[in-house]
Amino acid sequence: MSTREERHTVTFEINGARKTVAAEARRLLVHLIREDLGLTGTHVGCDTSQCGACTVEIDGLAVKSCTVLAVSAEGASITTIEGLTPGTDLDPIQAAFHEHHALQCGFCTPGMVMSVRQLLKDQPAPSEHDIRRGLAGNICRCTGYHNIVRAVESLASKGEQS
Amino acid sequence: MIPAAFDYVRASSLTQAIDLLRNDPDGTKLLAGGHTLLPSLKLRLASPALLVDIGDLAELKGIEISETGIRIGALTTHAELFASLPLNEQLPLFRQAAGLIADPQVRNRGTIGGSLANADPAADWPAVMLALQAEIEIAGTSGFRTILARDFFVDIFSTVLEADEILARINIPRPTAGTRFVYRKIRHPASGFAVVGIAIALRLSQNLVSEATIGVTGAANHAFVGEDAADFLIGKTLSRENIDQAARLLSEATECLSDRYASADYRANLIQVELKRALLALTP
Ligand SMILES: Cc1cc2nc3c(=O)[nH]c(=O)nc-3n(C[C@H](O)[C@H](O)[C@H](O)COP(=O)(O)OP(=O)(O)OC[C@H]3O[C@@H](n4cnc5c(N)ncnc54)[C@H](O)[C@@H]3O)c2cc1C
Ligand code: FES
Ligand code: FES
């Protein structure tokens, strides 16, 4: 008898709320987040783990949720774009994207914002080069990246060199 | 895309993981960071019956630095190798190479053990392991065995690992004081993998090369040690002529891969160019 379609129970914390869900072993975390939990801010843009539209934070690290099994999230603490601010307020990174026109269609934006969080944690005062390298895992088909870089530059903490 | 269905076990011990591999060697795959395996499952290039997640195994984690050398657990991620201060104080090559692998999100999940076990001919760590004269510790049914990295890679995506073995740790001998390191790669513009990548450990005494080890990735079926080129350099200065001759010897050391992206001749040329650049970077 095949047990491959059996559902496994997974418990994790997402945006501060504890959830227990049942998922097939092959279920990708991004599908669980979008389809089972209805958090559709996390996007899917490719089949090859390259575009970064699916970026979420797991235990404080930016990862591509299309390349993580839902069952591997057991015990994890996950933050998605919806978890940055309650309600419709913008968090500082989102506000900077708005201010600097760092999005056009917006498809890549949630993933970009999640990667910017990681980037600024690692390097509070990144150079333009650091920003481009730090966002190398996120593809944007609209903006040409220029305004995204500007938005991040506006967030760089002054006087502190990383 | 969605992988074909499989069973999943989160291993709680190395022994359990090895037993599961032994039960069904053909149908079972280990899951480490998943950043090679899951993309291939999504594209249905593979459809194993069972995935054994080794992510909880403490024996495979951590970086230990001692008098004699450095031990790195197979599950150590590229990002951890990039960030570890004690490690990079000894061997800044780790930060340099890790920073050239993929992108930040991939580095947060992908592991050095997964990269070495997978033996992608264009992966970065294999060249670095060769230059550092690393030894690979393998866990199997009858305990542990070790093998030098230079004997570990066998062919495209193929290593000496048996189907019921797990790459457990990497041991790196402490380099002689004064040894300098460099890793350089020509990136494939789309995938970011190495079209050719070269790692060198080199020591000079009074301007003469006293030790040199060269690891090459990307160029051939598997990463290899550039023995003739390194031997040639011993006892010589890093003059233009000596560097040119070492570069020629290195490009003649192997049959280069040829694919849609780069012909064998082009790769052979890149070996020369990259070795020269790497040696120039190490010239005081
Ligand atoms: C977008 C993208 C870009 C990338 N760019 C680069 C790059 O520039 N350079 C580069 O070198 N790599 C690159 N990679 C590959 C990445 O580094 C992978 O993470 C790595 O090669 C595999 O490690 P993993 O832990 O993810 O392994 P997994 O995907 O979990 O496993 C890979 C294979 O190794 C086996 N395996 C894993 N761990 C062990 C073990 N301990 N013992 C025995 N077998 C084991 C698995 O069964 C599987 O067959 C890239 C990947 C992606 C998705
Ligand atoms: S959807 Fe995850 S990287 Fe593209
Ligand atoms: S704004 Fe459209 S993909 Fe980035």
- State the helix count of chain A: 5
Ions and ligands: flavin-adenine dinucleotide, FE2/S2 (inorganic) cluster
Average pLDDT value of chain A?
95
Fill in the CATH topology of the largest domain in chain A: Ubiquitin-like (UB roll)
How many strands appear in the DSSP assignment of chain A? 5
Strand content of chain B: 25-35%
- With strands numbered from the N-terminus, the spatial order across the biggest sheet of chain A is 2-1-5-3-4
Order of strands, widest sheet of chain B: 4-5-10-6-7
Number of helices of chain B: 12
Uncertain parts of chain A: none
Can you say what the CATH homologous superfamily of the largest domain in chain A is?
Beta-grasp domain
Estimated structural class of chain B:
alpha+beta
Major sheet characteristics of chain A: 5 strands, mixed
The computed structural class of chain A is alpha+beta
* CATH topology (level 3) name of the largest domain in chain B: Uridine Diphospho-n-acetylenolpyruvylglucosamine Reductase, domain 3
Q: What are the secondary-structure elements of chain A, in order, as H or E?
A: EEHEEEHHHH
Strand content of chain A: 15-25%
Tally of DSSP β-strands of chain B: 14
Look at the structure and give the mean pLDDT of chain B. Answer: 97
The coarse silhouette of chain A is: elongated
Radius of gyration of chain B: 19 Å
Keywords (chain B): FAD, Flavoprotein, Oxidoreductase
Pfam family, one (chain B): CO_deh_flav_C
Organism (chain B): Bradyrhizobium yuanmingense
InterPro entries (chain B): CO_DH_flav_C, CO_DH_flav_C_dom_sf, Diverse_Substr_Oxidored, FAD-bd_PCMH, FAD-bd_PCMH-like_sf, FAD-bd_PCMH_sub1, FAD-bd_PCMH_sub2, Mopterin_DH_FAD-bd
